[in-house]
Fold this protein.
Amino acid sequence: MNKTKAVTLGGLPPFLVGVLAECAPNKTDLLAHDPPAFDQAMAADVALRLYGVSGKITPLSAEKDANFLIVLPTGEETLLKISNAVEDRAVTDMQTAALMHLASADPTLPVQRVCVSLNGNASETVTAADGQTHVVRLLTYLGGTILSGSTASPGLHYALGDFLARVTLGLRGFFHPAAGHVLQWDIKQAGKLRPLVREVQDTDLRSRLTKILVSFDAKIAPRLPHLRAQVVHNDFNPHNVLVNAPMATHPIGLIDFGDMVHTPIVCDLAVACSYQIGEGPNPLREMCKMVAGYVSRLPLEREEVDLLPALIRLRHATTLAIGASRARRYPDNATYILRNTATSLRGLDVLEQLGDATAIKALHAAAGTR
């Protein structure tokens, strides 16, 4: 099994990055389409035919793609990814190119590596029984303990922030024509949540989410174009971060680059922070430790810190709106779809109880931007 040679795909003048990102055409919303209909036998055939690999194959839960873990006879683990047929191939290519870029920009960064096919390509295509064509990739599989299933040691959150900043810096200078694609998980696209919010059954929650979107349109959206922006991971959540042990001291891997997009870097940080709101008398403690770790490698600007609480709220609103809509459409997969609902509800409650002034003050102290 061969890995691709890393290449750098940047090189565009900085002023073109934002222009191209904003001018990219709207893409189909993947959240409105079913994942690829591939079972284990079909995936095994694809892996053998295109990559010459075989072994024990296990399907993995995914939101929009079909993913399979393949354990080779040698014990080596690989991940076969079959992309959603409606995903723009340029977007899939961007994800692959970004992994290749990171392999060159930061060779020791613990992210997946792209494995070439028998034809020497970074990706292939396959036609399913329903006639739809899917992009197929084989990636190395990262082992470790999922952050969501671990217990944090005192220094873990600082290390997580530092790790996220390292990934962001690794992607600095990377660009791709598909970087401006429309993705509902991109916080800057929050204004497009309204049809989903209308599907929320809880009237009180629907009202809260509506107010958040009104505030976004009036106070947040006009400020976003003036912030530092680049291609980012955009999904640094506890299910995508691998740590060294059940009693975790530091991260050892980051997976799932499927939500990559060109957006303000503080939106990427807001995604990560949204999962670190705790309980008790100091619910922002872990979040602030993460921010402190982040700025140790990548300092924040004052306006970015000022916007963090609002952006975190918007991430929670996105999670709740998308989750409610998709759980109604796919009740058999509701447990997976709604896995972050409780976290988002608690996050909204905490931020509302504290108020923006308190949260902003704490975050400025953590970021050193007071």
